[in-house]
Amino acid sequence: MKGNKKTLFAVAALAVVAALMLGIWYFTRPQPQEGAKTVAVAVVHADASSKEFTYHTDAEYLGELLLAEKLVEGEQGPYGLFITAVDGETAQDSLHQWWCITKGGDQVDTGADSTPIADGDHFELTLSTY
User: For position 7, what pLDDT does the model report?
Assistant: First the structure.
């Protein structure tokens, strides 16, 4: 009986910690900016060449902007948009390539569909290999 109480207490404590962390994330997550904004997107291809795009948009999330401007192609998955091609270049699974999203040089912690955009943001889409 004593072991069951300890297990129940541990599970309850874990649930409280998880709920607390979820609450902190919810209230501190980046919020999208409403209205018109200008956003720059640099594309770095496999050959290290780069191309800069500037968009004027009312979109609130990066994925929405990239799809609307037809800069990317991708597949919807359980975590949102999985980018498979950018500016006509497709990531090759056989070469272990993928499109990395960075903002101001720092990798974003969210997918394209959940990355909010604000006026003046600068994003980079880089064909990377793992």
Answer: 87
- DSSP for 70-98 reads T-EEEEEETTEEEEEEETTEE--GGGTEE
Torsion angle, CA of 8/9/12/14, rounded to 10 degrees? -110
Given a contact cutoff of 8 angstroms between Cβ atoms, the answer to whether 86 and 127 are in contact is yes
Nearest to 92 by CA among 128, 64, 38: 128
Nearest to 72 by CA among 96, 90, 48: 90
Residues near 51 by beta carbon (within 8 Å), at least 6 away in sequence: 42, 43, 45, 87
For the entire predicted model, the pTM comes to 0.76
CA-to-CA distance for 45 and 48, rounded, in angstroms?
5
Q: Name the residue type at position 114.
A: S
pLDDT-wise least confident of 23-37, 52-66, 77-91: 23-37
DSSP 42: E
